[in-house]
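Ticket #737: bound-state structure for zinc ion.
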Amino acid sequence: MAEPVYLHLALPTPLRRRFDYLPPEGTDPDQVRHWPAGIRIRVPFGKQELIGILLGVSDHTHLKATQLRPALERLDETPLWPDELLQLCLWAADYYQCPVGEALHVALPALLRQGAPAERVTEPVWQLTSEGKGLPEGALSRAPRQAMLLAELQRRNQLSRADLALLDIPRSAVKALEDKGLVETAPPTPEAPTPALLSEQPLTLNSEQAAAVSRIKLKGFQVSLLDGATGSGKTEVYLQAIARTLAQGQQALVLVPEIGLTPQTLARFQRRFAQPVVALHSGMNDRERLDSWLQARSGRARIVIGTRSAIFTPLAEPGIIIVDEEHDGSFKQQDGFRYSARDLAVMRAHRLDIPLVLGSATPALETLHNAHQGRYQHLHLRQRAGGARPPTVELQDLRGVTLHEGFSRDSLAAIRAQIEMGNQVLVFLNRRGYAPTLECHSCGWLAECLHCDARLTVHQHPRHLHCHHCSHQRAVPRRCPSCHSAQLEPLGQGTERSEEALREAFPDVPVIRVDRDSTRRKNALRDLVAEVNKGEPCILVGTQMLAKGHHFADVTLVVIVDADAGLFSTDFRAPERMGQLLLQVAGRAGRAEKPGRVILQSHHTDHPLVQTLMHAGYHAFAETLLQERQRAQLPPFHHLALLRAESSRPENAVQFLRLALAQAQRLHAPDGIISYLGPLPAMLEKRGDRFRYQLHISSVARAPLQKLLSQLAAHLEADAFSKRVRWAFDVDPQDMS
Ligand code: ADP
Ligand code: ZN
Ligand code: ZN
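RESOLUTION: The complex was predicted; output attached.
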């Protein structure tokens, strides 16, 4: 009889171990021995069935024969990932202290998690009818979406559903052309690879751009920081670096922040390249995402553009990785598998031995530090591309100044002047809703959330009180719950209130609000941006949604209503984020013929950080912050991990962290290499009725920290007390709240 053989699986459960099974009944053990890692296996788990990933096969198991159950079914012939990527996922699960089954789960498209075959479903494509082919170029100009569809079909003959999604052409436009008899569906013709690389002439690079492209390696591991202000032509550098990669027969992976993956960005890549480009983002449905993923894996797609999780896209012939706006917080996942896609990009490029480009106008302090240390090549783009001039920035001291709904008289006058000249104005305020809270004028009562340590935001459309931390909502009270006075007043400014004030002050121009509330409907943001890009005078008022991804060429003035919040936060990253956000907003303004102006209203104009940012620029600002971080022994000089615990009973969370601290000190006594701080309450101690605490573990060196965290995780999991709290490690935390 053949020796028994065991399957070792990763299953999507919170347990930090692998699971052993017998092979499915009726399979030949000698064949099972050759099953590759990375295939999916369906198994019984308690009373359920789960889909696991095979990690290996061996003759050994730590389980008794009576504990072993046979697996049900092998789902894949070939591994889902190339070995490189499976190994990266395993490494990341280990590094971020995430159970491996959960990590692999996150790395897969939803349909594969659910057991769908890893095969493309060929769907019909759209093409022009003979009548459609007879139309002249530029026809249907009164229906822009239909005209765009027509032009694309004239250029490329066929469009798939994925192409339409990428071009952001609504199905209604397709239907309209079908009804007119101009477009029909057809089975896809087998794809002959297009030999052409480009479908549009690249721009002539300025000398800095050309130097940057030539210093990005064609082969071999290298990290370049492409450091250039908004509008300095970074994207053009990416496009030309990618063209070289495609020319040598390799694929490119481009990561962008969630909010940066706009139809404009995709269209720009589509326009430039004759080769297939696919997207991966949350606006796509599961089928579309799987299709992009499979096209990347098979090598059909030559360029993959996606948000955070796209770092886990398999590539047949990887040649370059690009991370745009690398400082952006959305690259770090904030729950479950708390990975940083930017940091994993460095690891993946290293393992693949290919170049990586990190681009930003405001590089993260970590990235600048790596560049200073010589680990990354530092490429600068100091001019604005195409001759545009950088905006001028003015500080406006609000102390002692009478404010009209948050605006100084000077700011309002400046807005008026630009509107009268036919220009557009952008007003930035990073608080949505009408006002940050409601106050009783008689007794000082403030509207607070019952479930969080936070105030309730006043919203007017529709009118209600809303907690932005737990989503709790209540009606606005008529009388103060404390003293019954009727004098309840909204306190402070939110975007809705600024919008209202600007409408009153400027009744003749459209005021367009852009925040999470005004853009909830699908395509709402696209429509608002299209409205602004018509170029008519208008006032845009909005949150950081305005700071990313969109360039507004006709905006000549940016007013930043209040920039002070970041200066006094207890989060050590708050000033860095404030500086990045301000410069990103400021960068929205101006172009060649119309230079931009930025007014920064502040009660702390003489704060050294504000002074440095405004007068010496981002790099000096970042340098100051880096020196502070070094003195305070914070990242990037020290490595930091949090152990987070939360419970409906605060004493449980604290007690758990005390036990963890004692255990950690037994494993690694504080010694000048590793140090401990806490248990501390989180910045928002109570959220959604749960009390949240943290233990900070910091280390001069990475390796001892990693070793400690792994050992500590194993101990905590085995400890019965850990069942009473929700706990997780957050390695390299970005958000300390
Ligand atoms: P960034 O990505 O740094 O914000 P972009 O690459 O989007 O900058 O460039 C900003 C604008 O300048 C775009 O409209 C782009 O077409 C234009 N541009 C970029 N490089 C050049 C160049 N070499 N010559 C002319 N225009 C350029
Ligand atoms: Zn009161
Ligand atoms: Zn709440």
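RESOLUTION NOTES: The first helix runs from residue 29 to 32.
TICKET STATUS: resolved
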